[in-house]
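Feature request, filed as a ticket because there's no other form

It would be nice if the structure record came with a short human-readable summary line next to the tokens. Right now we just get the raw output. Example of a typical job, pasted below so the devs can see what we mean:
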Amino acid sequence: MSGKDPVIEVKDLTKYFYLNKGLFKKRGAELKAVDGVSFHINEKETFGLVGESGCGKSTTGNLILRLLSPTKGEIKLNGVNIETYSDKEFRKLRKDLQIIFQDSSFALDPKMTIEDILSEPLLIHKITSKYEVSKEVHKLLELVGLPKLSAKKFPHEFSGGQKQRIGIARAIATKPKFILCDEPVSALDVSIQSQILNLLEDLQDEYDLTYLFIAHGLNVVKHVSNRVGVMYLGKIVEIGDVETIYNNPKHPYTEALISAFPDPDPDVEKNRVILKREVPSPINKPSGCAFHTRCPKVMDICKEREPKLESMADGHRVACFLNTKNEE
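Raw output as currently delivered:
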């Protein structure tokens, strides 16, 4: 159950990348990776952010962690704009903002033992003394379902699922308030995915964690999220309670994402929505609604005007002329 106070607030968040050209590297084309995104994440809540590759969801996560600086807009942590902190001040906040990567194989130093990897954040942020650090490492390993003997091993001695457990242990080592889960199960076998998702939910309950859970499709976030935002070409096109989004999607893109994964009941027939054309380039977006070049329900107005994100009911919002008035 989520709390009342937002841990993260994102308002009109925008990130443009500029492609240099010519011998003197003059500013060239503008790549709109994140284009006016707004949402909030309540305390102890899991907010899912879904969309195809290149939609801007990972860039949004990196902006929240201040790994990138926004072109405009603001990000608040517990009501304070993170851009107001100096680098020194924000380094102290790093322990409250952690990340679980898509593939921990690239996030674990192959030359370090697991004990060294897990000890590092504990000592840097002074979570424990050097005399108690081994005890704390063993506790972290047990929390994520690994034996104490794992501490003396190196990353290459573990399977993909075990490495992800180690990555989770490192993320919770500093007792953070917020964790960015950047596609944490997409590189794992289906049988292992459910184990990791259950682990994340158990840790959330035990430590009152707040998650931003990034994924390609709604099949994963449906089981772990309270609310979901659907992104397309840098914008959120639909946002709302996970059950509402899954059972009553209002945007054709959301319908396509839901139809892309099979129902566990073999007797249930699903109408697959096939998006035939490729995702347009974020450098040269289509006019009007960016999805109109692939939308099976496109209307003339979609090619001329960009729909705004408008309220439907109970926090459910959608940017689509099929369901909202979108008056000037």
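Something like this underneath would help us a lot:
The domain at 6-111+154-318 is CATH 3.40.50.300 (Rossmann fold).
The CA atoms of residues 46 and 211 lie 5 Å apart.
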